[in-house]
Design a protein that fits this description.
CATH class of the largest domain: Alpha Beta
Structural class: alpha+beta
Shape: rod-shaped
CATH superfamily of the largest domain: Ribosomal protein S6/Translation elongation factor EF1B
Largest sheet: 5 strands, antiparallel
CATH architecture of the largest domain: 2-Layer Sandwich
Strand content: 15-25%
Distance between the termini: 112 Å
CATH topology of the largest domain: Alpha-Beta Plaits
Order of helices and strands: HHHHEEEHEE
Helix content: 55-70%
Number of domains: 2
Mean pLDDT: 82
Length: 176
């Protein structure tokens, strides 16, 4: 064999060995790193999408919180820390006088403890015209204190054109 050809073959073999060594030592490890990096990127994107979805509800939640703050800002006043019957009776008396209803009797019951509050049942016997009763019930509904009418019994007196009214209601308070 010709020395030039021999040198050319040696050089070609050396070049081929260097290319193979380059592929084995450089390209293959980098390919694995690239695959690992791409896998991490996909995982990070999925995580980011999940977190973005979770975070997208935050503005709506903030809006709901603000609405609840406005709605329940006077909650402590509507559900006082004790019975405070004096203030309640004063409010009821004012409403009765304004509506031309006669308070014949007022009987508070025993407080009934609930999970988060106490309930005080009250029975009232009133007398007066129908429109006055309707206005009085509306004023109870608009009271700042949380008050609920549980039972309403109305009997008409044909002689006087007035109503005999028995009203069972509950007022609510937290334990002091």
């Amino acid at each position: 064999m010709n020395p030039k050809t021999k040198d050319l073959l040696i050089m070609s073999a050396a070049a081929a060995a260097m290319i193979i060594a380059g592929v084995l030592l450089v390209h293959m490890p980098n390919s694995r790193k690239l695959e690992d990096t791409q896998s991490k990127i996909l995982s990070a994107r999925a995580s980011l999408e999940a977190q973005t979805l979770q975070a997208s509800v935050i503005p709506d939640m903030m809006r709901q919180i603000e609405q609840m703050k406005v709605k329940y800002k006077d909650f402590d006043r509507r559900l006082p820390k004790r019975k405070e019957l004096g203030g309640f009776l004063r409010d009821i008396s004012e409403n009765l006088g304004r509506e031309n209803l006669v308070n014949q009797s007022y009987q508070p019951g025993a407080p009934v403890p609930q999970d988060l509050f106490h309930m005080l049942p009250i029975e009232m016997k009133l007398r007066g015209p129908y429109l006055s009763l309707a206005s009085f019930l509306q004023s109870i509904d608009q009271m700042e204190r949380l008050t609920r009418v549980q039972k309403l019994k109305i009997v008409s007196d044909p002689r006087t054109n007035e109503l005999d009214i028995t009203l069972n209601m509950n007022i609510y308070f937290t334990e002091s």
